[in-house]
């Protein structure tokens, strides 16, 4: 997911401050053909606008790393879910949709953004000036709506498990609706984008100083401010606030309070249960009781791991999108940076904010690798295949299957959580009177 913006505003595959910076140099630059001969003028253009500066070489290296990690990592995420039926859960369907949006923006917009940030020129023509910004805004909308659906799904599953039952079919329908809504809502972005030259006198001589920017009809001061204010609220602030509230309640339920449908035994007496599980000569009823409670403990741990991973994904998303969102709001709505004195500082802030948003696409697969054991196993299997050959890959996959066959899938575990809970409560109540009060075979849980 990325946001590159022409002068700040809505996401587009452009230099976010190119017009500002060039306008800042327009007055001293004057009419180049009057002050320089052609050779000197071309050398000036190469030195000031085309040849990367020292810090821009670091930016180029950073973009290359982000491009490779984002592309390879998100493809691996999609392949892992596609090849393994036990990973086809509701949450993973949304994660795959998030990866598809990241792949789209990485392929279409990241290379163009790098070129524009370095050269301060749009080289890709009028048609792509409309297509690339539109695809990027669609990707941003898809990412935000997908993260919102994930938060909503987890909120229902953990805080209100009896109100709504999430299924794979509903998840797929939600994903289709997300793409349709994003494609329709972001159409204005494609309409207002046009190519223009900062120096009209040079338009017939060089493609340099061509920018792809918004051109509004009617009230040029009112419509952009309204559009970008709404864009900021709809695609960043409002979803982020709702997701934060949802995860705060999820955190409260999972770590601070009893989860609906679970017994107090699970959350209050962990060590006695573990000690009881190691006791000798247990009666069959006690064994059943401990197995049911142990399964319930496992459910809580799985839910905590999933919630922790999703919270980190949301946190990284909020951090990566914060700088460009603030810069866009300051520039488009409040008119800052139009006459910036420190051109290099403005340029550096916008280019870094562009890279940071693309880095979010590369960060998500890394988060899955460190916080999800199933994704980590699939990533290791994929890299083993590349590094050590097909046979080694087959062996790793075989070992991975044997280790995962003994465990239920996440979807099955979550759907059976209520059943296990009822079983544990029933067994616990029915066997309180049957267990002896004293003796080696007794289990003191309370």
Automatic annotation (TrEMBL):
Pfam families: 7tm_1 (PF00001), Orexin_rec2 (PF03827). Keywords: Cell membrane, Disulfide bond, G-protein coupled receptor, Glycoprotein, Membrane, Receptor, Transducer, Transmembrane, Transmembrane helix. Belongs to the G-protein coupled receptor 1 family. The chain crosses the membrane at residues 57-82, 94-114, 134-152, 173-192, 226-248, 307-326, 346-371. The keyword Endoplasmic reticulum does not apply. The lineage of its organism: Eukaryota, Metazoa, Chordata, Craniata, Vertebrata. It is a multi-pass membrane protein. The keyword Transport does not apply. It is found in: Cell membrane. The gene is HCRTR2. This is Orexin receptor type 2. GO terms for molecular function: orexin receptor activity. Its main location: membrane. InterPro entries: GPCR_Rhodpsn, GPCR_Rhodpsn_7TM, Orexin_rcpt, Orexin_rcpt_2. Nonselective, high-affinity receptor for both orexin-A and orexin-B neuropeptides. Triggers an increase in cytoplasmic Ca(2+) levels in response to orexin-A binding. GO terms for cellular component: plasma membrane. Residues 73-368 form the G-protein coupled receptors family 1 profile domain. GO terms for biological process: circadian sleep/wake cycle process; feeding behavior.
